[in-house]
Design a protein that fits this description.
Elements lengths: L1 E5 L8 E5 L14 E7 L6 H11 L5 E7 L5 H9 L5 E6 L6 H12 L4 E4 L11 H10 L4 E5 L12 H18 L15 E4 L15 H9 L4 E5 L14 H16 L1 H15 L1 H14 L4 H24 L9 H28 L5 H24 L11
Parallel strand pairs: 3-4, 3-6, 4-5, 7-9
Antiparallel strand pairs: 1-2, 1-5, 6-8, 7-8
The structure holds guanosine-5'-diphosphate and magnesium ion.
Guanosine-5'-diphosphate (GDP) binds next to strand 3, strand 4 and helix 3.
Length: 398
């Protein structure tokens, strides 16, 4: 990891490439009002404009800018060069491993920040740099701990969200998040915002375990800042380059929501359940195809359909749920145990079904549902405790 620091022209200009540990040697500034933390991933064509606009908006002697960079292009070099012309002190912290993605980068930047306020904003100018003094001004005036730049508060808008699809995903995830975290988010209209200012004294960086993009949500739920206020702003289209958010980011977001809301094991159980329910589809479809189309007797057809569903469940469980625990066993070890369990399930369910219907006189459908629930809990516990037994510390991370 490399940190390059440029001090403004008013001081002897210097650009240093140092190991991260030496950051403490930087000249100690007193009364640094704000640190702007900017995560960057291949943003070379946005840097000059971003720094120009930040420099025009903020007093140089009260400000520092910290870039935390995971780029694979020459963004850090572009920043170091542009920093020479910027009156504000600029630090670039380049990470080789990109740990924790965007959220990890922001937390890293918060650790390095020395200002009284920390402002987090994107590099692509979707967040107008001119809003930074407003965020801090409002925060100071209202005695707030957290000031959120909001696209949804009165006067804000999200015109910069490209296309109906992005707008739908953004609106939908905001709604789900607001419902899941009603209490923490009563005063927050835009929990997905990537633009916010936090008072450093109310920040507890060590509490944060971000997963992917939604660092603000992590901050609100885990740090529980006292007073939260919002400043509306207009979300602009990206200035240059491409968005890095992706399908994988969406899956990570769902995982993050589960972890924040339900904790480790319960959120795994939830996802395990969702995967199990999704398995009904291939099960029914193959039963229908084998029985109705191919004319196979319904009993062997049901057994084969069960196999298809177990295969489907295995693929999803292994890739989505336990990706980080796969190293605990070989592929053959995992798939064979999973299939064994999936079919042992039939051995449990059939006699249980007979018992419930024959002796307890339950209706077939109700009894069947009950056997599915019993088997689900049993299978989850066996998967969680035996097949994917956690070795070492925290089990679920992306
Ligand atoms: N350091 C770092 N920055 C990232 C990473 N992914 C995205 N970013 C930055 O986070 C900001 C928001 O990303 P962007 O791709 O614009 O997301 P979008 O606005 O949701 O399309 C930009 O400044 C990106 O350069 C990452 O893995 N590491
Ligand atoms: Mg963007």
């Amino acid at each position: 990891m490399t940190t390059i620091t440029t001090e403004p022209e008013t001081q002897p200009a210097k650009v240093r490439a140092t190991m991260r540990g030496t950051i403490g040697e930087l000249p100690v500034r007193t009364a640094l009002r704000q640190t702007v933390v900017v995560p960057t991933f291949n943003e070379r064509d946005n840097i000059v404009t971003l720094l120009d606009r930040l420099a025009a908006a903020l007093p140089a002697d009260e400000t520092e800018i910290v870039f935390v960079d995971d780029s694979t292009d020459d963004t850090p070099e572009v920043i170091a060069e542009a920093a020479g012309n910027c009156p504000i002190a600029v630090t670039v912290h380049h990470r080789e491993n990109g740990a924790g993605g965007l959220g990890g980068a922001v937390v890293e930047g918060m650790r390095l920040a020395r200002g009284e306020w920390i402002v987090v904003m994107d590099a692509d100018l979707q967040h107008p740099p001119e809003i930074v003094p407003d965020l801090i001004g409002v925060g100071t005036r209202d005695g707030a701990d957290l000031v959120i730049g909001s696209r949804y508060a009165g006067g804000g808008n999200r015109d910069g969200l490209s296309g109906g699809y992005r707008r739908m995903v953004s609106g939908g995830s905001t709604l789900v998040t607001k419902v899941l975290f009603r209490n923490s988010l009563v005063r927050v209209s835009d929990p997905m915002s990537g633009l916010f200012a936090i008072r450093t004294s109310s920040l507890e960086v060590e509490e944060l375990r971000p997963l992917g993009y939604k660092i603000l949500l992590e901050l609100v739920v885990r740090n529980r800042p006292g007073r939260i206020v919002e400043v509306p702003y207009s979300f602009r289209p990206r200035h240059a380059g491409e968005s890095k958010s992706s399908m994988a980011e969406g899956v990570r977001f769902l995982k993050h929501l589960g972890l924040l809301r339900f904790g480790d094991q319960r959120s795994r159980m939830l996802l395990f359940g969702l995967i199990g329910v999704s398995g009904l589809l291939p099960n029914q479809a193959s039963l229908w195809a084998l029985n109705q189309l191919a004319g196979l007797h319904y009993l062997p057809a049901a057994v084969l359909a069960n196999l298809v569903a177990v295969g489907w469940n295995f693929a999803l469980t292994d890739t989505l749920l336990y990706r980080s625990r796969r190293s605990s066993r070989s592929f053959r070890g995992r798939i064979s145990r999973f299939f064994l369990l999936g079919n042992a399930d039939l051995l449990l369910r059939i006699p249980l079904l007979a018992l419930l219907v024959g002796s307890a006189h339950l209706g077939v459908l109700g009894a069947n549902l009950l056997t599915l629930v019993v088997s689900f809990v049993a299978r989850f516990l066996i998967s969680d405790k035996v097949i994917y037994r956690a070795r070492g510390l925290r089990p679920v991370t992306a």
